[in-house]
Design brief:
Elements: H1 4-22, H2 25-28, H3 30-86, H4 97-102, H5 104-125, H6 131-148, H7 150-159, H8 168-176
Helix pairs in contact: 1-3, 3-5, 3-6, 5-6, 5-8
Amino acid sequence: MTLWPLWVALILVVVMGLLPVFFPKWRTDPWGAISAAATLITAGAAISIPLIIDSSARATRTADQLNELDRKLVDTLATKQAADRKNGRTGSTIYDATYIKSDPVIQGVVYRILNDYEYICLGSNKGLFITEVVKALRWDALASTWADYRQFIDQHRKENIRQAQAWTECDKWLQANPHPTIK
C-alpha cells in the first residue's frame, strides 16, 4: 500500500489548521474558511485522483501482461517439448546451447521464451509494470528459466558484438529483485 494519499491528507489538515493562525480573518469569517477548505480539498483530489488511477492502471496492465505471458508460454513450451521428444532429448540436455543452436525450431522457440520474459523485465525495469506483482507471480519461473538457459544466453552474447546486449534486462531485474523469501 502506498502512503502518499495519507501524506496529501495530512498536508491538507495542517494547512487548514495553520491558516486561521496566520490569517485571523478566517476565525471571524467561517464561510471564507469553508470556501478555502473546499478549494484545498478539490485541489488535493485533482492531484491525487490521476495518481491513483495511474497506479491502478499499472497494476491491471501488469496482471494482464503476465496472464498473456502465461498463455504464450504454454503454447511455446508445448512446441519445445514436442521437438525435444522428437529429437530424443530429456533432462538437462534440453538446455544445452549446442543442441539449441543445432535445431532452428528449438532455437526459435527458445528465442520466443527469452524474448517474452525480456519484455516483462524491461517493462518492470522501466516502471511500466509493478515489480512487486511480477515478483509475486513470475519470480520462480523467471529465475529458473534464466538459470536453465544461462549457457545458451552467454554463448549467444559472445557470438557477435550485436548480440552482446541480448536479454540483459532480465539479468538486471533478477539482480535488483532477489528471491522474495530470501532477505
